[in-house]
Amino acid sequence: MGFSTNGAMVGSSAIVGWVSSDGDGVVKQYHLGGTSPRLVVPDQGNLKVVSNSTAIISQSLRLYMAFQLETDNDQQPQSRPLYSVGRTGVFPSAPNYVLSEHQVKVSTSINYVTGQSTSSGGPYVKLRRSHGVLNMIGWGILMIIGAIVARYFKQKDPTWFYLHTSIQLLGFVLGIIGIVCGFILKNRLNAHVSTHKGIGIFILVLGCLQVMAFLARPNKEAKLRKYWNWYHQNVGRILIIFTIANIFYGIHLGGEGRGWSAGYGVVLCVLFITIVVLELRSWIRK
Q1: Which of 95, 120, 145 is the last residue of a domain?
Q2: Can you supply one Gene Ontology CC term for this chain's record (predicted)?
Q3: Are residues 143 and 258 in the same domain?
Q4: Contact 223, 112 (CB under 8 A)
Q5: For 272, phi and psi rounded to 5 degrees?
Q6: Which end of the chain has the least Cβ crowding within 10 Å, N or C?
């Protein structure tokens, strides 16, 4: 359980408790200086815990933790308590007492005068989900649909071209907005997501290259057209592969749970089945 000024874990102090496999209960204070393990420091923080006031017990597959805090000059603890649960069966151990990544996080806001509280899934929930949904739809769904149109509907010329261009352009615009949301979110949360960010920038670069390739495409009769086609198609495939991987990785980082992964997985399955059916149909026609 942490106490934060803005609902974010980074920068807050937390009381963490666990009951190890041998039955011993441990309660420690941590300073949450960042998202990497080395920045989560045990026996540090700005909470003044009353001596001998901590306790933790395991009963009926549940943990019950208690502690008491001192206040100076009636100064109350931060009004944004945080609650999270670590991985099952993974416990901090001596000498460093490193914490594992939490699985569930809830941010609350308490009015200590009235006793009323509200809860949310965490800070900047709308921004987080906007980042995820826009990128999922833009890069991870529309780009695939646009590629399907280009591969299997060229007999409907020029309708396929305008449809392909419109879908890809819409996906590109939504993807850019989603990436901007991601940069804003990273700065506000001070999150360390270098791998996710790096892959996202790589995807954005590939998307920009595709737009430039579209603007510089040679005529159908030009000798360079076959090389342009090879480049355009393969860059698109690479973009889609990295996009799918980064979406699942982003869902993992966001702690959204299996529901989001399953939902996007179902969409990918539908698109994959569609591709298989269209591919078989094209082979039969040949």
Answers
A1: 120
A2: membrane
A3: yes
A4: no
A5: -65, -45
A6: C
Which amino acid does the sequence have at 90?
V
- pLDDT tens column, 235-246: 999 999 999 999
| CATH at residue 247 | 1.20.120.1770
How far, in Å, CA of 91 to CA of 211, rounded? Answer: 49
To the nearest 10°, the Cα dihedral for 228, 232, 234, 240?
Answer: 180
The partner residues of 117 in beta bridges, in order of sequence, read 110
What pTM did the predictor assign? 0.62
Q: Rounded to whole angstroms, how far apart are CA atoms 42 and 52?
A: 18
Of 139, 249, 114, 131, the closest CA to residue 203 belongs to: 139
Q: Among all chains, which residue has been given the structure tokens 């791998």? A: 195
Q: Are strands 55-59 and 40-42 parallel, antiparallel or unpaired?
A: unpaired
Of the candidates 239, 240, 246, the one whose C-alpha atom is nearest the C-alpha of residue 261 is 246
Cβ within 8 Å of residue 106, ≥6 positions away: 82, 83, 84, 119, 120, 121, 122
Say if residue 220 is in the same domain as residue 111.
no
**135/190 same-domain check:** yes
d(CA 109, CA 94): 33
d(CA 205, CA 248): 20
Do 163 and 86 lie in one domain? The reply is no
Phi, psi of 241 (to 5 degrees): -60, -50
pLDDT of the residue at 223: 87
Residues 251 and 197 occupy one common structural domain: yes
Dist CA 190 CA 157 (whole Å) = 49
The three-class DSSP label of residue 209 is helix
Task: For residue range 5-16, list pLDDT tens digits in order.
Answer: 777 778 888 888
Q: How confident is the model at residue 36 (pLDDT cuts 50, 70, 90)?
A: confident
- Look at the chain and report how many structural domains it folds into: 2
Domain that holds residue 269: 125-285
Assess whether 93 and 109 both reside in one domain. Answer: yes
pLDDT at residue number 118:
65
